[in-house]
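Changelog-adjacent note: as of this version, every example in the card shows the full chain rather than a window. The one below runs 76 residues end to end.
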Amino acid sequence: MSHDLRWIAPTPPEPDFVVLEVHQLTHEFHEEVQHRQEFDRYCQWYYATARKHRREVQNMQNDLNLLGWFCRGLRR
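Full-length structure tokens:
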């Protein structure tokens, strides 16, 4: 009886594991590429922000220290 059912609904073929492995490796590769691109964008943003903050600190050091001037006047 089981032989008769094969003609109606044949058993599915075994999966090709090589194809599945290649698919998995391709997926992992694309994830790694995406991760590295996101990390590179983050590093570029971080270095740009650090440069901006260094310029701001340098400009602030050249500014007049008004608060120090007022506090010095209160101490006397």
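Structural remarks: The radius of gyration is 34 Å.
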